[in-house]
Amino acid sequence: MHPEKTSFGKGRAVAVSLAAVTLFVLLWSAGGRFGLFNPLLLPPPEEIWATGREMLTDGYRQLPLLYHVAISLGRVIGAFIPAVLVGVPLGLAMGLFPVLRAILDPFVQFFRPLPKLALIPLVILWLGIGEVSKVFLIFISALLTVLVGCAAAVGGADRNRLRLGRALGATNRQLLRYIVFPGALPEIFTSVRLAVGVGWTTLIAAEMVAADTGLGWMVLNASSYMRTDIVMLGIILLGLTGYMLDMLIVALQKAVVPWDGKA
């Protein structure tokens, strides 16, 4: 016997999520009010909110707060789009052609787990300390994730459909266009979502390369002055911005792959 599937409901899920976040903030605030946390190490949410309002007016290091957000977002998007444009077709090709996969896979698997901080000295030597080096670090992180995901997605193609297509005389191009690619799209979107997360986390490393703007730089700079309220504000903005990017990709996936998850 199989357990009956229960529909939790999207509206109920949103309500539960909001309640969980609200409860967390209330407990955090109460902990700060009753002295359970050292405010120097973990400022209460009221202090972070006040800092955010102040920085919206005065900015940080003579630059508006939203400018730092826009700079970081621009760096990630500027690296992410080329990573997808290169990584999706190359990853699909790796999945389709074993020889190409055998050639590229050792390099992909070597560089993928490598901490991107280790690449900073070489990137500075090769590309200097300008924007190109920062975007390149994020690009490499996102590209490797997309390559692995897309190559694996090809293996998920329906073998029965492939055999049926060949029996009906379909060419390799037609099989790729009408069977392999549509079947791989859900996994491609999953790899793209992962690539956004990896690229966004690499932003901190990228903005260590002689930066003087951006959320990652703001967090690192504020930490050197023990401004944990600004550090926490930057972390919250990083998380919220990354979450919004992920939501955009999920919305795009639902529009492009409406059959995903349906029987």
Total DSSP helices: 10
Q: Would you report the number of β strands?
A: 0
How is the CATH topology named? MetI-like fold
Oligomer: single chain
The SSE string, one letter per element, is HHHHHHHHHH
Q: Low-confidence segments, ≥5 residues, pLDDT <50?
A: 1-5
Percentage of residues in strands? under 5%
Structural class: mainly alpha
- CATH architecture group name: Orthogonal Bundle
Protein topology:
Layout: H1 10-33, H2 45-58, H3 65-96, H4 98-111, H5 120-127, H6 131-154, H7 159-167, H8 172-206, H9 215-224, H10 228-256
Helix pairs in contact: 2-10, 3-4, 3-6, 3-8, 4-6, 5-6, 6-8, 8-9, 8-10, 9-10
Account of the protein in words:
- With 263 residues, the protein is an all-alpha fold.
- It has a single domain, classed as Orthogonal Bundle (MetI-like fold).
- It is built from ten helices and no strands.
- The chain is globular, with a radius of gyration of 23 Å.
- The model is unreliable at 1-5 (pLDDT under 50).
